[in-house]
Amino acid sequence: MTHEELIARDAAAIAGVEKLRFFPATMATGARAHLTDVNGRDYVDLTATWTAAGLGYGHRRVAQAVAEAMAGQPGSGLSIMHENAVLLAERLLELVPERVESGTGEAVERRVYLGHAGSDACDVALRCARAATGKRRVVAFQHSYHGGFGLAQSVSGVLVEGGAVPDPDAVFVPYPNPFRPHAGTIEESVDDALAQVSTALDGGDVAIVAVEPILSDGGFVVPPAGFLRRLADLVQGYGVLLMVDEVKMGLARPGLMHTYQHEGITPDIVCFGKSLGGGLPIGAAVGPAWVLNEPPASALLTMAGNSICTAAALAVLDELVEGDYPGRTAQLGQHFMSGLRGLQEGGGVQNGRSGGYIGDVRGHGLCIGLELVQDRASNAEAADLTRKVIYRMWQLGVLVFSVGENVLEITPPLVITEADIDRAIAVIDQAICDAADGVVTDEEVGPYSGW
Ligand SMILES: Cc1ncc(COP(=O)(O)O)c(C=O)c1O
Fold first, then answer.
1. Which alpha helices (DSSP H) does 185-226 contain, by range?
2. At 321, is the secondary structure helix, strand, or coil?
């Protein structure tokens, strides 16, 4: 099948509701951090399929675990018990540090919800919080993303701002953005955000506060150091549940196993998805038994916690721990970010011109945001340029998606090599210059409007 044929058949057969396209990528296969299109052309992938391919494509250990599990599957966990689900839950309990009751000093008894994706993990955690506390209000952040349906969707700032119906009991508060503070300085913005959380908590009717440790779909905002710590102290000081959504950034990508560990906090509930499945769909929420047991039999997905997806997830977690992926991503992330900062400072080979459009480079490990601006004096968002830069990068053989209006989300498979990172940096340099020079036309990017 040719590139053109696949585009035409995709347009005629696949529903528009599940398309978020930035360029006409037509892929046939993947291996490690590379994808190959139907014409046999090779691409370095900086998306990891929105981080779902954390260990890259076709990881042998995961493939073997899946093949074995598939050959002898004992059914799924809804109405029978099987060891893979229990092992995975036990492994996640080990990986997520437990919280200690402030009064008794005893560890909180916990359970794990196993589901199909990040969306249902977050949705179930939020619903359980309401049922267990008897309170309705959910505090979430503007421009946040927690899931594509249900309560997870209706407390997702990005989706509500885009037209989804907000939950009537959701309160949206600003997420402090060091590059674009919403209230004067970044310190004032942090104070303002926390004051708004505090006002909501004072109402006494908050069931849970949900936060992304890096606001990813909402523009790849890395909060200033100390913000999550202060948020956790505030929320948990009120005795309210704090849910940290690690679905996109978590599991070794941020240079630690969990992004929230950069702030040394202990959330009440942690949600996972995407890379956990190693290419198969699975999600999980780890939290207090008194929350995740409520109400019993209220999240009944027939194939949730099935033996195949749980086998994949176990292989992923074993690989991440045994291969010290947090250490690897910390080191590769530093290499990537220093290369990008070099471009920003005018070190690109295209006469250093790309640096004039790079407003900010931020991140932890291999969670990196590159914000493009119209010029460094105004820092005005360069939305049109961004669409054309990522389109040009696709033409030049490197895949990346954008978030917010003007931020490149650089989240490659964790198995990426330094040589591929260097190639990607050179392509980013060239693509920025080419896009600024008008090499990509409005007609070309027209059908690929992204968000
Ligand atoms: C932070 C966060 N939470 C939850 C989700 C939902 O995950 P999924 O789309 O795999 O259901 C996403 C998806 O992008 C996400 O970025």
1. 186-202
2. helix
CA of 147 relative to ligand 1 center, distance in Å: 5
Helix (H, G, I), strand (E, B) or coil at 30: strand
Catalytic positions: 145
β-bridge pairing 358-364 and 137-141: unpaired
- The Å distance, Cα 211 to ligand 1 centre, comes to 12
Q: What is the CA radius of gyration of the chain?
A: 22
CA–CA distance, 141 with 174 (Å, rounded to integer): 6
Pocket probe mutation, ligand 1, options 119, 251, 403, max atoms within 8 Å of Cβ? 119
pLDDT of residue 141: 98
Kindly give the number of the ligand 1 atom that is closest to the alpha carbon of 273.
10
C-alpha span between 161 and 175 (Å, rounded): 14
Exposed e or buried b per residue across 203-230, where buried means at least 16 C-beta atoms within 10 angstroms of its C-beta: eeebbbbbbbbbbbbbbbbbbbeebbeb
Nearest to 428 by CA among 398, 384, 395: 398
Residues 70-125: tens digit of each pLDDT: 998 888 888 999 999 999 999 999 999 999 887 788 999 999 999 999 999 999 99
Ligand 1 nearest atom to the CA of residue 281, by list position:
10
> Residues 35, 43: contact at Cβ < 8 Å?
yes
From residue 41, alpha-carbon distances to 25, 297, 394 in Å are 11, 48, 11
Give me the domains of the chain, ranges plus CATH numbers.
3-58+324-445 (3.90.1150.10), 65-322 (3.40.640.10)
Per-residue pLDDT, 257: 98
pLDDT digits over 15-47, tens only? 999 999 999 999 999 999 999 999 999 999 999
For ligand 1, the distance from its centroid to the CA atom of residue 146, given in whole angstroms, is 5
Amino acid 184: pLDDT: 96
Secondary structure class of 347 (helix, strand, coil): helix
Q: State how far Cα 97 lies from the chain centre.
A: 20
pLDDT, tens only, 311-333: 999 999 999 999 999 999 999 99
Give kind and range of the element (H or E) at residue 88: helix 83-95
Atom of ligand 1 nearest to the CA of 152: 4
Question: What is the model's pLDDT at position 451?
Answer: 83
List ligand 1's pocket residues with C-beta within 6 A.
Answer: 50, 117-119, 122, 145-148, 212, 216-217, 245, 247-248, 273-274
Q: Give the pLDDT confidence of 179-196 residue by residue, as tens digits.
A: 999 999 999 999 999 999
